[in-house]
What we know:
399 residues, Diaminopimelate Epimerase, Chain A, domain 1, 2 domains, eight-stranded mixed beta barrel, 16% helix, 33% strand
Amino acid sequence: MIAMDGVLPAGFRGARAAGSQTAVPCLLMRGGTSRGLFFDARVLPGNDAARDAVLLSAMGSPDPRQIDGLGGAHPLTSKVGVVAPGVDGVDLEWTFAQLQPDSEVVDTTPNCGNMLAAVLPFALETGMLAPQGETTTARVRTANTGAVADITVRTPLGPDGRRDVEYAGDARIDGVPGTASAVEIAFLDTAGSVAGSLLPTANVRDTVTVPGLGDVEVTLIDNGQPLVVVAATQLDARGDESPAEIDADDSLKDRVERLRLVCGEAMGLGDVTARNYPKMTLVAPPTHGGTIATRSLIPHVAHQSIGVLAAVTVATACVLPGSVAHDVAELAPRDADGDVHVSVEHPSGEFTVSLGLDGDDPPTVVRSALLRTARLLMSGEVLVPRTVWDPTNEKETTA
């Protein structure tokens, strides 16, 4: 392994031979409503193909149960974060990897705002960054898309005189049991993260022709997540289905996928058959006092809640007159700071996104802010067969 600065954080050693296997240091962390393994980039193979082989082995893919790895047999628990010291004005840079239980694909093209919540805690836990005071703020860039966010976590002084990440607190996010310390995320610029612009077709509403469905009205938008926003009724759905109902409805999933393939081409993303984006979000009027009701697919399995950047993107669609989301949204007026707070209802509850707006016709979203939580679940080493990766064969290693 080649360390970026030649030195790993104290107490965080590199990969090592362990009999017939290779032991790779990592942390298992929950970020928002997702969970996965986090690695220091400097302890992984520098070659992408070799790195991906390690990640697939560590997670146990491809296998629907991921029985031979640490994956959780679901896309939300089959995720990986690879973190490195930042350059060019950012404190940290990380690469998000989406794995699927039954696939050999390691997708490093999308964002993940939930896993993003665990990046700064990981850096502090491993000594990549030092705590600043009662709170620690770091600027983090997602290498996948170039998206930049300022992240703040609590790092109080403990009884031993050390500052550590505080995981206990009273912040609650739907989709995660109990409460925890808040992780504040302020996105600086997420428009066009993958599709190149906020509205890839330059329209707030498009009519696309889908084989077997006819004409379907959609909003194609990317404010951190390439998203197809469609009224649930356009796909013969209600918009209040449980994830289990959606997953069991093969006919609905087929209609959603046919629409996704057409919209991927329309967004300039090409053939998205094997890609994890664009994500699909069915919208309907709110039913629990929020702004809008959503049901998301990621992209072939129903989300138990909604992804962070999908929430930011659908909230953005809500404030754009003429969009599919605007049609069904019940928007609150702007607050004294000019922000609009959008409560996105999802199967597990709601997700509030605060949008800073500039202008009115149409408004421009200049910032987005939200709260997540994160927690370190386990630290140690994940073991992969040495036939997958043998670091002793590499010319440069870090002990």
